[in-house]
Amino acid sequence: MDIFFSTMMLMYSLMTGTGEENAAANHVAASMLNAAAGQTIVETAFAGNITPVLPSDDKKQDPQPDAPVVKGIYVTAHSAGGARMESLLKLVDDTDLNSMVIDIKDDNGYITYPTQTPELLEKGTPQKYIKDIGVLMTSLKQHHIYPIARIVVFKDTALARKQPELSFLHSDGTIWKNGRGESFVNPYREEVWKYNVDIAKEAARLGFKEIQFDYVRFPEGFEKRAESLQFDKSDDSRVNVVAGFVKYAREQLEPLGVRVSVDIFGYAASVPAAEGIGQDFVKISNDVHVISPMIYPSHYSTGWFKQKDPDKSPYATIKGAMVDTHKKLDPIGKSKPIIRPWIQDFTASWLGKGHYVKYGKAEVEAQIKALEDSGVTEYLLWNAGNKYTAGVDYK
């Protein structure tokens, strides 16, 4: 436990001790962008033990009980609308992979195809990364690919610039940015909830079977700057606000026959609630059909799961993360979602010589084996450039 807490406090200090203004933290955060399903490692606020709370209506139902066992890859909008898509389709055709998670609202907040829907155009900024979304959906159907729409929610620089009142402002009225120049919008604003769910509804109409929400949280280290920023808020805690969005999204989308999933930090399964960013692993899991913890071995530091260098021990690291995940979620019984982790198909060279290994077939298969041995049959592979290892047995 001493190693555990010292490790967590080190990460807390690195990523939030001096904010994103700290040059060292910026360097680590920028390096890790490749690996974190769009997210960087953040602090964990030690908020005490979690008491599982069932959804208030206790009526969560899987709208797709006959869905396949999902084994998928991340696909950027640039890849989905460009030349790389041909090779990605072939990868899925030639293997046991059967799904793609495709950016529909990306990490900058852009809608990635030229939508003509008035309520989306009011707040959204469309791009033509995917020039013809209909053609894409037809192609996915022809290749028997289970399509998942990734929507980045509260990290939304585009909307913050378009409507600053929906963001976090400095006293001089300028928009707050993190060390990478990115802005977030305010999870307390329910019009932000509606906007993102409206995008999800359009994705459902287009034929996506599942909506995967990412960045369902406040900015990292938010509790250290909240008092100095101007933004609308209620008396609700950040945890309850974030959980409230997830519940709202599920209730709005479930009748359309689409599943709702959320990406969440892998650490969240191993520690108490992260009050600072508003993420409670159990509360969020209560109201989703699928939970996707990002359990990349590269994102665990020395001492985690008794490993000196977790990145060099993909089997042990994934196995340890799944033990903690089951411990966290087993008590919620029928409300337990499908566990479908993000795993690592990239090399974390930024960890430094001696602390990482080049990831290839053996390392990816070790992670899959660890999931299988933990009773988890679904997974998603992350590589920011969509360059996936050849010859992997995706059993």
Characteristics of this structure?
globular, single chain, 9 strands, GH, TIM Barrel, 11% strand, alpha/beta, 9-stranded parallel sheet, DUF4015 domain-containing protein, DUF4015
Topology, element by element:
Elements: H1 2-17, H2 23-32, E1 71-75, H3 77-80, H4 84-94, E2 99-105, H5 118-123, H6 133-142, E3 146-152, H7 157-162, H8 190-206, E4 210-214, H9 238-253, E5 259-265, H10 281-286, E6 290-294, H11 314-329, E7 338-339, E8 342-344, H12 361-373, E9 379-382
Please identify which CATH superfamily we are dealing with. Glycosidases
* Main structural class: alpha/beta
Question: Helical element count?
Answer: 12
So what's the CATH class? Alpha Beta
Number of domains: 1
**Helical content class:** 25-40%
Number of strands: 9
User: Beta fraction of the residues?
Assistant: 5-15%
Average pLDDT score? 88
- Pick out the low-confidence regions: 1-57
Give, in order, the helices and strands. HHEHHEHHEHHEHEHEHEEHE
Q: How do the strands of the widest beta sheet line up side by side?
A: 7-6-5-4-3-2-1-9-8
Kindly report the CATH topology.
Answer: TIM Barrel
The largest β sheet comes out as: 9 strands, parallel
Principal-axes geometry comes out as globular
Radius of gyration: 20 Å
